[in-house]
Write a structure and sequence with these properties.
3-stranded parallel beta sheet; Rossmann fold; alpha/beta
Amino acid sequence: MILSHFSSLYILSQIFKLLRKIFSPYIKIDYKNINYKLINSSIITNEELLEKYDDEIDKAGGIDIQLLGIGSNGHIAFNEPFTPFDSKTHIVKLDDKTRNDNARFFSNIDEVPTHAITMGISTIMKAKEIILVILGDSKVSALKQLLCLEPDESFPASVLSKHPNIKVYTTMDLFKKAFC
């Protein structure tokens, strides 16, 4: 399993604790088989280093389980609207909506990053299984578009409908509000 998109060891350690708490009672995970990459975006200056990331994923046998959330604008990972479906790992300028939605994790909006490194959509779509978790009333519109739209790059999550093995987890209340 490959985890990405975390900028600090603290955040990563908290996510591992949460994953262990959630999954350990149900499945046996050999934690030495969990691979993660921490990438400091300030040192990434060329495409060759970003391509190497995708190559390392391929060399590791690909992604077994891709755990995703969805942004209110339909982004997955940090693939903002109009990201090409054939994209690989890249640096992206974050949409104002994404920055505002994530401001709650920072002291003020000025601390919210303007750019991020993200796994590309084509890399995500190669995962053997995708688990998409959608929670919160702010995601009603995103879930509705996911359920009702044909794949379109203006709404990156829409490509997930083409994946052969995706599971979407949400609440019944959210599903009823979003049902087409």
